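anyone seen this seq b4? input:
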Amino acid sequence: MRRYILTGAPGAGKTTILAGLRDRGYAVVDEAATEVIAREHARGCDEPWREPRFIDAIARLQQQRQLQPVPRGTTVQIFDRSPVCTLALAQQLGHPVTPLLAGQIERILAEQIYQPQVFFVQLLGFITPTAARRITLAESVRFERTHRRAYTERGFELIDVPVSPPEQRTALVEGYLRALDPVSR
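predicted toks r here
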């Protein structure tokens, strides 16, 4: 099984690209942070990212999703973010790197869980706020730098997905996937 990461700062357009890849038959693993935020909102916590347990909740869900059985015949999975993203998020929010998160980073690196090529979606130049995305463009630009550094410092190769119409971005990622893994899907 080959696992690829597609990531980028909030508001970059990852979800649209991943939906396009899913429509093309790729196995996509959804982002954990968005689900954690939605769960916390349902419990009445308006800003769960301020809570100390937030980072561990994301790391746990990421691990659960990564360890789930893969459907028969699936050779490639595309993950919407990884524990390295959670590390960048902790750094951005000023939260400590918890033992759980540090252990997950160590595990994914030691076991080479993900392919070394990471698709990094560049910011669109604007932010569309959502219940889970309450960040300004300036904050997202800063987070993008933190995010890039978190990956490159751990030896990942970033493949930039530049700003273009969604279909072109999806086709670009699919083209790389086919070049990197000719029997992908």
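Residues 9 and 145 are 9 Å apart (CA to CA). The chain has seven helices and five strands. kinda curious what u guys think
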